[in-house]
Every structure is written in structure tokens, then in C-alpha cells.
Amino acid sequence: MDDCCQGALLNRRQLLRDVACGFGSIALAGMLDHGNAAAGPLLPRAPHFAPRAKRIIFLFMAGGVSQVDSFDYKPLLEREDGQMRDFNDARNVARTGQGAKSRVMKSLWKFQQHGQSGKWTSSLFPEMSQRVDDLCFLHGMHTEGVAHGPATLFLHTGSTNLIRPSMGSWTTYGLGAENDNLPAFVVLAPSLGNGGPRNYGNAFLPAVYQGTTIGRAGIPAKDSQIPHLLNRERSLASQQAQLDLVQALNREQAKSRPGDSELEAVIESYELAFRMQRRAPEVLDLGQETQATLNLYGIGASATDDYGRRCLMARRLAESGVRYIQVNYTDNSNNPPWDQHSDMPKHATHATAVDKPIAGLLTDLKQRGLLEDTLVWWGGEFGRNPFAENNGTGRDHNPNGFTAWLAGGGVKAGFSYGATDEFGHLAVEQKVHMHDLHATLLHLLGLDHKRLTYRYSGRNFRLTDVAGDVKQEIIA
Amino acid sequence: MHRRRPPIFVLRCVLSIVATMGVCGASVLAEEPAELSGAELDFFETRIRPVLVEHCYECHAADADILHGGLLLDSGKGVLAGGDSGPAAVPGNPEESLLLKALRYEGFEMPPDGKLSNDVIADFERWIEMGVPDPRTGGVTPQRPGIDIEEGRKFWCYQSIEPHVPPSVANAAWPYCAVDRFLLATLEERNLHPAADAPRATWLRRVTFDLIGLPPKPEEIDAFESDGSPLAHELVVDRLLASPHFGERWGRHWLDVARFAESSGGGRSIVFEDAWRYRDYVIESFNKDKPLDEFIIEQIAGDLLPHADAVEEHDHLVATAYLLLGAHNYEEQDKRLLEMDVVDEQLDTISRGLLGMTVACARCHDHKFDPIPTSDYYALAGILRSTNTLVHENVSTWTTRPLPIPPADAASVAAHEKSLAENEAKLIAARESKNSNDAKRVVVLEKRIADLKKTRPPTSSCMAVEEAKVIEDCKICIRGSVRHRGPAIPRGVLQVALHGEPPAMPADGSGRLELARWIASPQNPLTARVYVNRVWHYVFGAGLVRTVDNFGTAGELPSHPELLDDLAARFINDGWSTKRLLRELVLSHAYRMRSATDDKAAIVDPENRLLVGMKRRRLDAESLRDAILTVAGTLDLQIGGRNISDDVLAKSSPTTPAEYGFEFADSRRSVYTPAFRNCMHELFEVFDFADQNRSVGARSLTTAAPQALLMLNSPFVMEQARAAAERALGSDHDLADEQRIERAFRETLGRRPSNGELGIALAAVSIADKGDEQARREAWQRLFQGLFGCIDFRYID
Predict the structure, then answer these.
(1) d(Cα B290, Cα B518) in Å, to the nearest integer?
(2) Do B674 and B684 meet the contact criterion of CB atoms below 8 Å apart?
(3) CA nearest to B748, candidates B660, B652, B659, B632
(4) Euclidean distance between the first and final Cα of chain A, in Å?
(5) Given an 8 Å threshold on Cβ–Cβ distance, is A254 in contact with B555?
(6) pTM here?
(7) Per-residue pLDDT band at B188 (split at 50, 70, 90)
(8) Of A55, A71, A29, which Cα lies nearest the Cα of A375?
(9) Residue B482 has pLDDT above 90, yes or no
(10) What is the pLDDT of residue A27?
(11) Burial of A20 from C-beta contacts in 10 A (0-12 / 13-18 / 19+)
(12) B697 pLDDT exceeds 70?
């Protein structure tokens, strides 16, 4: 089947070569190499300075993982468990301007040290704990928005409510695509909830910079595909005939306006679509992987199959030159998975689903040398409180102190930066605001967040608004 | 002179003066420090200066890389003058000193890396109590350039709108109307010539899509092509302007500007179940050619207008949904922030959509490009803050109001209510009675009352605003922060666009009606210009001012300023009639030109700003879908009404709103396709439907592979192509393939095929086995899908 496509493609090239007028040459340039004749908005662009990473894989943990149950070890919680203490709870502060007394709740998981770095982590993520020497923990994270919607939008766009382009869109706007047969910004299994498409939207940037979705939260990864990429009703020959017919009509109609770049772009869009149709399924086809690799990601085991497949797809997309790959762990609803308001033990279910796949991804990237120039970012829209919500068995949202980690792509390995207070509640040292993280991620990609601007509605906009501080201390 | 508000930089100085307790004139501040005692000097040098140097100078000194908050702490003058939030220290008054509050992490948190020790904070408290003794002389006060509004008024768009006499032209035979004379005069100045007329069928397809958003029918093409009368064009235009589909087309344009959507989108998306009423109101307003000034006033302040009857009352209430349709994060927990965000969104929609101004920039600081001080922003914000638009809960919602009972139902509702009241009275009497028969009667009456309540005719409600209980001016949010408030600014309008007296703001009302009337006034230099330019943009493919949402200094200048002014002036004089304006534009000679231009024009005017010929335009997503459905014969032309079924709404929940799994299966016109913010029709998604999150005057235009993938593989397109094929083959069995192909081209492209196209099409439908019906249908399906996907279907020539 592949050979047959290849043949068709070569014939197409031949055909285009034979066409004397302008549109053929443009189409041809796009196929043979890029950076040539077609000055498209997705052509690779030089960064502001030498990058440490060429691409980002963002592992989005929707709902907010509890830092004090995972990576931010606070012995005091054990000692003070059950005590009533005054806390400046973010939700209370937002509503009333004041904090409240709450019951300290210790971690449900045991902590111990791991790796050369001696990092304390809990048994919630046993597999990731084996990889701590590759990770750069940011324990002083803080952000905007107490509720999922605002905080999720802030994480992705740098604004809780205003309409702003997403991080992936800014990245592709800044750097262009590495591969013109694939989208530059891919979002695996997004949710329609909590801002939905705005989290991977281009807002006022040109539409080519929006994220291309593969699947949707709630749809099994094995059934996920780029929209309209496959035609399940028609044979390959029939699809070929359809394309040939459209293009024959297009060429006939463009004849009277030779050199019209707008019409050439339409013709080229069909050529690219056909190439994507051939190339993208191949990239997403996990059947080409060895059993050992599949096992590494937990593919085939029911608990980890779904996120494992998405993580492996992410590696394959990274290998193929996709710039920004977001792998969501979320639901297609407004109540995201990690949101344990009343049932902390449920964190274990989610941890099991992502732990092995993520550890597998790190191992795989490393052994293929991809971790060198791929920056992996793990985190959610906020963390959780060290005290019980409503004196129950869950924890409420905490935007004022939480943990994220980075790996590869120019950051220090086996390193921890920043700290929360002794309860693990508020970030107090080496704080990293979400704007700072955005600025630092762009910096690692070779982009100066203050220079990556877009003029819209009479002024220049940027991802970090008027804030953002590059955290040089975490850069290797 | 009109009353003018002090610009914010003056206010800052006033604050500083107050702070220094009566020292007159900001320039005098700490110019000559008083003689310090040895103890004071010692205290400053040992306890204060080292802390300032170590923890503050990085961001608050004249040599800082970036000065933060406009605050300089490297001189005595800087400490007293303060920054954007006011003076840092009030001598002798630690509790009023922002510097101390910031050190204590109250409101501000300084230094940001971590709170200083209590001892250090106590030192600063002491220092302020001592009267801020400071030996540091000199220093600079940060530059705070003010806005010169009088200077700003000189910019073209703030000048009064004046009619102009159309210029004379050499080629006097060419112009059909005033518009043509303006255009031709500009061309003649550059020795350019207008393009030849387009073929009649091209013009018909162009004008039909432009006025009603649908393709012309083959019979209409025949009739027009064979009508040699000089009035043929006018007949077509008048037929289209009178069509009920006109409102669907032009209403949709307005819905872009009004950022219409049927769900909130932001954060937890919530379905706006009643938004369709606003959509229908807009469609009907365009069908009735409601004067634009009335239309604007109703949307901003309909609830405050008198009404003649229940129908008018209904429309006036529904119109105000305009203020409520924004993309908001209703679950924002800081409700003060949510309120200011909603006001900001309303101001952005009003100012960009109606005035072509980017007022929202002034939320945090004076506008950097346009003469709009922050005080203007908060003058407008006060009007909207005095209007109820939110109902607060954990996840807040928008305000709704009951709709008046339609006249047709009034009698039956009144009878029902009367009966209910009578029975309730009887029940009271029966309960009070001691008679044993009445005990049974109580039971009977109770049942009857319950039934009557159950069968009460349903009352409807709509998204609508109301006046707030408390009317008050809005305090400035310093740097946009709701937690740092400056002085209250009297409610008012944009000073730079004010001609004549400012509208007087009522003490007992929000001032919305005054704002609406000021916007929709003939004296307003922006409103008519902006609207006329929008109409021009939709008809000619680019505005006379191409930045249709931005007439300010960061926008573009008009290509034909006198033409724009003349159109705006006549638009006002003609009673703000959209249909009259459109009639002139589409009957102009300019609109009749071909889209191709000559080589000379391509060099002199490469972007065709002077309209040497018509611009080729891409069909918008709605027309593309409607045209496909038309050709397939599946288009449902029902006008108005809700388009999200009860079943779907019943399944909707706060966790999983109706839109999350919504299937776009209906075949009504695209204007009725549920306009959810987080879940869009697949065709809208790839063909640049308006970003429903913001007021959009000019949609983006992209050409990208997902469009091709959709045209090649989408089940929707394939299904419609199949229906079109069955329709083409089902009628008149004796037709030859050539004739069917010709009809297919006329239905899809509004013209006959060229010889080349005919050859391609014939090859596509020829099948080896003539008797194979299945293969034949598939071949025709492929042909229609090819036509749907081809260039000439996607573009209006």
C-alpha cells in the first residue's frame, strides 16, 4: 500500500514538473524541500538565540495533582495531622479576602528518597520516582485562578479570562514547523471543558498556528486520528480519483489567472492534505514499534494502555519534527480527573494511569538521544491544599504553591528549585509564577518572551503580558 | 468650554500633593530636604539605606533595567512622589504608607522574593513615623507623559462628518452614482481605468451571495441573462433586498460584530439557551431595515426605552442580550475581578464594534496610541458597573428578565389568572367556614388550584440587563488591579470623540441610555463612519479603512476619505437605512466590474485599494455550507426559532453542557447552526468562521490543508455530494450527460462549464459498464464533491 502511494506521489511530481505555469512550481517546492520558494507562515524561522530545545512535550495533568502527596515532601504534615490551623485558603481569600481554619491532612502515600540526587518522592508515582535523576522539579510554582476554567486558561494562554493565543500557538508562530507534512502543534486528547479549544487556540494569531487535535478526551487513544485524515468509505484508488478530479478542475480554473498566489495556495493545500494523509497515519501507527517499546509505555495493560499510547504517539511526533506536543490526561467534562475534592485515594487511579507511560516516555526519549533537544514538561493548572476540604477526605485547589517538573531540553537534571512553606501550602522561595515558567520555556526554545510579540488591535501582545522572568538557575 | 475630567496624570499629582499635606505644586516635592539631625542621618544610613539598596533598587532605581510600577526609591523625592499606586510613604503616618503595607505583604508583596524580617519592617515603620528623613538629594521623577485631548481631536476620525460634492470626472459616462464618481476621480488622477464589466452571470452570483448569502438558482440566471431591460439589475437587487433571507445574511454580519454565541465558552462553558431570541431579533431588524441608530440604542439600553406594546417591549428587552453575550469565566472566584472583566469585555465590544476604538487598552494605563486616558475608560466603566449583568453564585450566571406576554396570548393568560384568583378566594372562604360540606370543597378547590397552576401558560424569559440598585461612579483600578483602587471617575463618554455638550449622567440611572444616544447620534464622528465602512468591507472585500475595527492612530487611514464621509453623511440623512446604502453600493458601476485587473494597475495599486476592479472574495463558511445544501436539495429554509432541541437541553448538565457532545445534524441555514464557543460545526472550524470570543469586523482568511481534508473526506461533504448526485440523476431520465453537467455547473458555480471543464467532467462521469447504476451514482457523487471542492465554488468572482 505504501509503495502504491509512493508511486502515485512520484507520478504527481512528474505531472507537476511537466506543468509549465506558476502553480506547479510552488506545489513542487513545498514537496521537495522547504525554505525555498513558498514563503509560508509555517516555514522554519530562526530563533532569537541558540535554543536548548527544539520542541516541547507537555504532559498536562488536568485538575491539579497534589504536591504534598507526590513530590513536595513535608514531614510537618505527618506531625500535625488532624490539627486545626489558620490557612490563607485561596478560594476563601478570593471570595472574602480572608483565610480560614482548616484541618491539616498528611499525605496518604509514604515518602522515601530516590536516585543519586536523593530526592524524596512518595509511592504515588513509583515509576517516575525511578527517574528523578532526569527531572528538574519546580516546587515554588504559583499561578492565577482558583477555579479550573480560569487556571487552565492561564496555564495555556497566560490569561484567566481574556482571549489570548495559547503557548503552542506562540511557539509555532515563533519557530514555524520542522516538517511540512505534519502540523507543527499537536494536541492529543483535548477536553472541550475548562476553556476547551481556547487552550490550544490561536486567538488573534493567524489560524495556521492553532493546535491540530488528535482524538478527544473520552475517546480511546487507539481510535484517535487527525480530523478528516482518513476516508473509511472509499478505496485508495477512489480517493486518488477524487483528488485528481478536484485538482484538474482547479488547474483549469486557475489557468485564466496565471501566477495568482491565492489560487496556487488552494492547489497546494490539496497536495499537502494528500501528503498528510499518507504520512500522518504512519507516524501515529504504533504497530511499527517493538513489543519491548510497547511494554515500556504500559501499552496493552488496561490501566495504562490509553495514556501509554498517547505518550508513544508523542515520541513519534517529536521524532518527526512536531514542535509542540501536548498530551492531555483529562476528561471531556468540566470536572477534570485529578480533582479530588472529597476522595484523595482516587489520586491513585490516575497516578497508575500515567505513571508508567510517563516514565516509559522519559526512558525512551533518553535512549534515543531525543531528550537532548526535547523539553518535557509535566504539570497541572494548580496544586492542592495540605489541609482537608470542609474537614473531609479531599483537598481543594491551590494556585499559590505547587510542583511542576521539566526534563531534558537544557534544564538541570536531578535538581530541585524553589520551595513551599513548611506545610507545602504557599510558595515562598525561588518562586516560579506561571508567567515565569512560560518565559523560561520560550527561552529554552531560543525565544525571548519579550520579543515574541504580535501586533493586534493597535498594540503588541505577548504570551507573558507585562510579566515573566526567565529562571536562569534551572538551566543546565 | 465643556466640563472635562482631569486626565489621570493630573490625579496622580493631586494624590501626591495630598500626601505631602499641603505642599503646593508637585515640583516642590522634597527639592530641598530639611536639615537632618545626626540621629536621623545615622538611622537612615544604618537601617534604611542598606535595605533599599539590597532589596529595592534592582527594580526601583533610575538605573534599573526595567522600572517597576513607576516607583523610584533611590531618592527622597522618589519615595514621596511615589509610583502608579500613589506615594510610597506619607511622612508621620505609617498606616497610610504603601511602602510599609508592601513590606508587610498587605496588598502588595515586596520584595517579591520573600518577606523581610519583622525587625527591618519595624525600622521602616519608625522611619516613616520620624517623617521620612532622607539625605538623598536630587533624583528624577519618572516621566508621565499626559494625553493632550485637544491635540488628539485633530485626527481625521474625530472630526465632524461632512457631506462632499462628488468630484467631476473625465469619463462622465462611466459613473452610475456618487460612489462611482469618487472612485473614478481617484483612478483618473493616476491614469488608471476601471475594469470592464463582469459577465452578467458573474454579477448575479456576486450580488445574490452578497445580499442573501445563497447561490442564484439556474432559473434566476436564465431570467436575468435574457432580460435586456435597463432596469434588470435594479429588479434583481430589489427582489433580494425584500427577501426574508436578506436579514439572515446581514444579521449574520452583525452577529460577528456582536460576538454572538450560544454558550459562554470561557472556563466552564454554559449554554445560553435564550441567545436565539437575540439572533432572531437581529435578523428581523435587518429585514425590517430598522434604522441603525435605533438598533444600537435598543441593544445598549432597550430596557430603558418606552414601548408602544408588548411586541416592542419584547424586542427592547431581547436586544440588550448584546451586553451579555461575552465569553466569560463565570466560575471566577474573585467576583470583583469577574465584574470588572465583564465590564471590560462589554467596553471592548462596544468600543471596537460601534466606534472603531480600542478603549480596552486604557484599563491599565493611558492609551499609548490614541487620546484615551484611563479616566475615560473608568468613566464608561461606571455606566456599565451601574448596570446589573451578573447573578453571583459559585459559578455565576447572567441576568435574565421575564418576557411580556405576547398580545395573542394576553386574553387567555388573563382569564387563567382570573380563574386562579377566584378559586384561591373561594378556598380561603371554604377554609374559614365551619360547614362540613366545605371541608370537601376545600379538597376539591385545592386540587383545582393545583391543576390551574400546572396548566398556567408558560412564561418565557430572555437574557437581558437591568439597572443596578446602586448607581455609582467607578474607581480607577490602578494598573488594572481590582485590589488597588484610585479615585472615582464621574460617568461619561470618550472625550476625544465628543462634539457639543457631554451627555448629563443621571443620578438615579446608570447612564446607559445617555451613552447609547451619544453613540447613535449624528454628531458622533465615529459611529456612522465605522458602520458604513463595515458595509463597504462586506460588499467590496476590504473597507475604505481596511482596519475596520480600529479607526485610531494604530489603524489605517481611509483610501477615499471624502467618499467615506459622504457615504456616512448621506447614511445619517437617509435615516440610517442599511438597505438604501446597500442598494447604492451594489448598483454602482464599480460593483459591476470584473475582478481581474490589468498589469499597470497591478504595479501602481498592487493591493487594489483604489478599486481598479472588483476583489475576488472567498465565500464565508456559512455561504459555503448553505450553497452545498442548496445544490444537494437538502436546505431547510425555515426562518427563525430555536435550533437546539429540548432533548439535547434536557441532557445538558453543569459538568457536561449540551455542546460537549453536540452533533450538528440539522440542515437549516448556517445562521441557525448552534454557535457554541467550544464546539463548532466542522466546516466552520476550518473555513475561518468568526472568532466568537471577540467582536470581529474582518474574519481571518486562511488556506490550509485541513480545508482540503474536509472537502475530500468529511462525511458531511460526501453525504451532500451523494444527495446532489441523486437529485441530478433522478430528474428527467432522457437528459444527456452533457446537459446534466451543464446544470450541475450552473447550480454550483452559477455558470456553464468551459470546454476544458466539460472534458474533465465528462471523463469523471464516464463509467465502463453503462448499466452499473451504483458506479454511475458514485461517479456523479465524485463530480459534485469535486465541484464543492474546486476554486470557483469557493470564491466569488
Answers:
(1) 18
(2) no
(3) B632
(4) 46
(5) no
(6) 0.82
(7) very high
(8) A55
(9) no
(10) 29
(11) exposed
(12) yes
Nearest CB partner across the interface for B332, out of A147, A238, A257: A147
Residues of A in contact with B710 (CB under 8 A): 227-228
- Going by pLDDT thresholds of 50, 70 and 90, the confidence category of residue A258 is confident
In chain A, residues with a C-beta closer than 8 Å to the C-beta of B757 are 249, 252-253
> Do A196 and B678 count as a contact with CB atoms less than 8 A apart?
yes
User: Would you state the cell numbers that stand for residue B741, as one nine-digit string?
Assistant: 453537467
DSSP code string of A50-112: --S-SEEEEEEETT---GGGTT---HHHHHHTT-EEEE--HHHHHHHS--EEEEB---SS-EE
The pLDDT of residue B716: 96
Name the nearest CA neighbour of B132 among B10, B28, B29.
B29
Q: What rounded mean pLDDT belongs to chain A?
A: 88
Q: Which helix (H) or strand (E) holds B425?
A: helix B407-432
Asked if pLDDT for residue B586 goes beyond 50, the answer is yes
Q: Cα–Cα distance between B658 and B649 in angstroms, integer?
A: 6
- Which candidate, B694, B374, B697, places its Cα nearest to that of B550? B697
All three cell numbers of A256, joined, read 485564466
Q: What is the average pLDDT across B7-13?
A: 42
Assign 3-class secondary structure to B441-497.
Answer: HHHHHHHHHHHHHHCCCCCCEEECCEECCCCCCEEEEHHHCCCCEEEEECCCCCHHH
Look at residue B207 and tell me whether its pLDDT is greater than 60. yes
Give per-residue pLDDT as tens, A388-437: 998 899 999 999 999 999 999 999 999 999 999 999 999 999 999 999 99
In chain A, whose CA is at the least distance from the CA of B342?
A: A161
pLDDT at B17 over 70: no
Cα separation of B644 and B658, whole Å?
9
Q: Which of A228, A263, A270, A417 to mutate to test the interface with B (most CBs of B within 10 A)?
A: A228
Choosing among B68, B110, B259, B329, which should be mutated to test the A contact, i.e. which has the most A CBs within 10 A? B329
- In chain B, pLDDT over 70 holds for what percent of residues? 95
Return d(Cα B255, Cα B695) in angstroms, integer: 9
Q: Which pLDDT value is given to residue A39?
A: 41
**Alpha helices for A213-346 (secondary structure H):** 236-254, 261-284, 291-296, 305-319
Residue B682 with chain A: CB contacts under 8 Å: 227-228
**pLDDT beyond 90 at B676:** yes
| DSSP conformational letter for B115 | P
Residues 6+ apart with CB under 8 A from B11: B375, B476, B486, B487
What is the per-residue pLDDT for B606? 81
How many Cβ atoms from other residues are within 10 Å of residue B273's Cβ? 18
Phi/psi of residue B269, nearest 5 degrees? -75, 130
CA B400, CA B321: separation in Å to the nearest integer? 9
Measuring CA to CA, which residue among B740, B615, B752, B676 is closest to residue B263? B676
Q: How many CB atoms lie within 10 A of CB A313?
A: 24
Calculate the alpha carbon distances from B382 to B400, B492, B498 in Å: 21, 8, 18
**Is B352 in the A-facing interface, judged by CB distances under 8 Å?**
yes
Q: What is the pLDDT of residue B143?
A: 55
- For chain B, positions 330-349, list CB contacts with chain A under 8 A: 331-335, 338, 341, 344
Distance CA(A78)–CA(A92), nearest Å, equals 25
Question: Which of A197, A208, A429 minimises the CB distance to B114?
Answer: A429
Residues β-bridged to residue B796? B617
Q: Given this model, what pLDDT does residue B60 score?
A: 87
